[in-house]
């Protein structure tokens, strides 16, 4: 894992000092709320329904045990004993006091963490694949690139007041586990003639105009990625719309200019940028890469797993995936217990996972965009012990990618922009489909719920998506089908008129019944939908 | 409280700035003012006769002026580059890094706060046009001339 | 009636204008008539509240009831964590917001 050197450390400490000063100016009235708001947002501090909310960055979703333990400690000491892991692989605390925020940032700085640029119209936390570095299907570990870009984007002098937020994702496998093409810029590392570089995609996003990003370049060498991104961002900063915040994302610029014209402008700017010496030397990427060099895996380990306990065997089949090192496995920890709140974890659970990471996973863990956690390097021989401890803490749900592995945004229970509550709906669905054999029968089925059109819950990318709308002051839910955030990315189609909360649970049940009746050998829900189209589903739902 | 801040040697330019349109059509002006949305590159052919470029920030949240400033400096502009309008202490560091060397904010700035802001970050992550050496250059001194 | 709400500047707690100060209980909210905006500005300037706004409400048998579900959830707390609402012992408290 990456470790800060003195430079990194002094920069986050300077930030804490700066924010302490800003909070002080706010508390004494030297700053009005209008002036303070963009400053607090750049430190991840929102004002939400019930209190201030703090969003802490988990760069590319990777954490050490010590960092995770600190997150638990903050939940206990400054919040009400829990945190919420988000689709952007960050953690949010819902009950923060303004006066405490600088102290929290100082505690985070102590474990090489921060909340820099977790909000605001700037380059946000860089996201990546939760299996980065441990999965066998990658051409390289994408996290050194993500760290290089984290540093490049932190306090970028030119790109801190962009037209709108800007999200970058880096992956390195054919299988897209991070919704790369739904980011403002997506990088997919590829190998060409023995050299690693990036395919670049631009103009993806969710929100009210969801778009899957087109490719804008098929190869940028690793020692030019910074200048290439500077070019992409400069074109966007200069020409992205600022008259209407719903049209301000880069996806609209790319769409309005046309991909070819955007590409042309970027190339022109890039030709200029690459002469300015903006790229760190390759030694810098090598330095970062050395931090991510595979941990020392033990050799000669057995691949055998004792499956005599059926509950354990079920969990292994669902939650454990192949690791590139023999004798090791990747463990997915579900944060979607039956009837629970997707993505929420108590301080105790956070601390338990920290301890498991230290003891069983070479001191490392990951956060996924599906709001789950991952222990990336567990010896197969330790799986049973890990499972037992997870089970005791209510963390051994076996539902990865199944219908109850629901993504849900905070919705109207916490969010001031919401139209409807997302979480109670997720809870009802998880109760309705709780039966293990039924979930297994339905197979991979990604349900994603957002409480409003901002689409924080990725509903556009759900095989089944639900969007909360406001119908004359009453919560109402729109259903959509056929979205995907994976390598076959697509945007879901709305089925028709909306439903009440119970109504949408019933409608989803009808949709799944139809799938079971219609599917052909080997088809996932999404495949059947793509083959037979919306019409039969509409008929099943609206009769 | 400072109503005008300059980081240049010598006198600040006094000539009133004209619009980009007036400037490109009129050969004798030496000061110009860029509004958000105007293309700084239009000035590149005549940089040598410019003593002052003002970049207006009607609202601090509109970041186009940062690109305008860097474009001018990248093209070798050496004259005064002044940020005017809704310029707050919290943006000064980024503006300095993009090449601004004078400031005429709508509301005066507290000198002590400006001083604190400008000295707070000993290190920066990116190479820009202010000559500061980014941390990657400091980490690999043998590979870079910074 | 019109009532005034916002968040406490320092703690972020949801608060309601109770006539002589701010209360965390919506039941204490008083009709501010036409004075809402003026009060909001004064209280904001005095650093006692952040993001104040005036909303419609009615008085029912159960007390003051904000017109919009969002403000009823603000008045109660997150319906999915009854233990953290202002009525932790009332299992049905969530129904009030609907
Ligand atoms: C509770 C406070 C939150 C607020 C006020 C908020 C606000 C917003 C807004 C306004 C947008 C739309 C931006 C645009 O399209 O230009 C957005 C998008 C998004 N937010 Fe949130 N959000 C919140 C929480 C979350 C949480 C908890 C998550 C993760 C579970 C999240 C993840 C996202 C994602 C993935 C997008 C879509 C990004 C895209 O369009 O590409 N947000 N959010
Ligand atoms: S989708 Fe809407 S309701 Fe949900 S967190 Fe985002 S802004 Fe809030």
Automatic annotation (TrEMBL), chain A:
Gene3D superfamilies: Sulfite Reductase Hemoprotein, domain 1, Sulfite Reductase Hemoprotein,Domain 2. It comes from the Bacteria. Residues 52-109, 340-393 form the Nitrite/Sulfite reductase ferredoxin-like domain. Coiled coil: none annotated. The keyword Chaperone does not apply. Residues 119-272, 403-541 form the Nitrite/sulphite reductase 4Fe-4S domain. GO terms for molecular function: 4 iron, 4 sulfur cluster binding; heme binding; metal ion binding; oxidoreductase activity. It holds the Pfam family NIR_SIR. Keywords: 4Fe-4S, Heme, Iron, Iron-sulfur, Metal-binding, Oxidoreductase. This is Sulfite reductase. The lineage of its organism: Bacteria, Pseudomonadati, Pseudomonadota, Alphaproteobacteria, Sphingomonadales.
UniProtKB/TrEMBL annotation, chain B:
It comes from the Bacteria. Pfam families: DUF934. This is Oxidoreductase. It comes from Sphingobium ummariense RL-3.
TrEMBL record, chain C:
InterPro entries: DUF2849 (IPR021270). This is DUF2849 domain-containing protein. It comes from Sphingobium ummariense RL-3.
